[in-house]
Write a structure and sequence with these properties.
It is built from 10 helices and 12 strands. The chain is of the alpha+beta class. The longest helix is centred in the N-terminal third of the chain and has 19 residues.
Length: about 280
């Protein structure tokens, strides 16, 4: 008897889903309402609903809505030597960097950090030319829709694009991860802090710090005496220092520490990079 009930479950689930869409939605808002009703009826879990909503709404967003602005770009100058630009690469811990000529508007290519590995195994040669390592740069306008950009990223196997404004100047950068995060939420990588800890030391001497770290825990970890009278978490302390909700890569200094925002959304800070100013 249990076998019969089990065999009917897929059909029952399909019937429920069909009933949920019995009233054909006439526009995107009605479609979202149907999906949310399906979630309330336990046909979709919260994570699936969030992903579907993100996929639908991403078509309403443009590159300018999510790009890293020009002022926060981390770039490499074409005339720099590895000794000059490697500290910036180590600190930022990104995988790709725009390489520029005379100015930020003169992007000549994209450098992949992994392409520098052979240079680490040999002494720097006078003939080193960073241009030999560059990949072609992709340029997109600020107004490009994210769903179109994602399709182009997939078709061309690109992961980063340089954003240009209406005058042809560089306005910022956008990556495929930036687009995907609009659909599936924050994407963790090898630099994220473990779930059961608040702080992760980095080889450079810096630290990754979760914004939700209680100030008491932070004080204990770094032998500091930040007050928790007004704020309970490091994120609240840092946001107060900024005076506004910061975007990714914004930097502020509190006491003997510099905080760089690594991950934030429209509501709160998620992850910080901490650099002791006195070592």
């Amino acid at each position: 008897m249990s076998e019969d009930r089990s065999s009917n479950e897929p059909k029952s689930w399909l019937n429920k889903l069909t009933q949920a869409f019995a009233h054909e939605p006439k526009n995107r808002q009605e479609l979202l309402e149907v999906l949310r009703e399906a979630h309330q009826n336990k046909l979709l879990d919260s994570e699936a609903l969030a992903i579907v909503e993100g996929a639908i709404q991403v078509a309403d967003l443009q590159v300018r809505d999510i790009m890293v602005p020009r002022s926060q770009m981390i770039s490499i100058k074409a005339n720099q030597t590895p000794k000059e630009f490697l500290p910036s690469i180590i600190e930022a811990a990104h995988s790709r960097y725009p390489v520029v000529g005379e100015s930020l508007d003169d992007v000549i290519g994209i450098l992949l950090a992994k392409d520098l590995l052979p240079q680490v195994l040999q002494d720097e040669q006078p003939s080193f030319n960073i241009k030999d390592l560059l990949r072609p740069a992709t340029f997109v306008p600020e107004s490009k829709r994210l769903n179109v950009l994602l399709r182009e990223f997939r078709a061309n196997h690109n992961h980063m694009a340089v954003v240009i404004d209406e005058y042809g100047g560089v306005a910022g950068l956008v990556t495929i991860e930036d687009v995907l995060e609009q659909i599936v939420g924050d994407i963790e990588d090898e630099h994220d802090v473990e779930e059961d800890s608040y702080v992760k030391p980095l080889p450079s001497g810096d630290f990754l710090v979760k914004a939700l770290t209680p100030i008491d825990n932070f004080n204990e970890a770094f032998d500091t005496e930040f007050s928790d009278d007004e704020f309970d978490t490091v994120g609240g302390l840092v946001m107060s220092a900024f005076g506004h909700l910061p975007k990714r890569n914004e930097v502020t200094e509190i006491g003997e520490y510099r905080f760089r925002v690594l991950n934030a959304d429209s509501r709160r800070i998620h992850l910080l990079r901490l650099t002791p100013r006195v070592r």
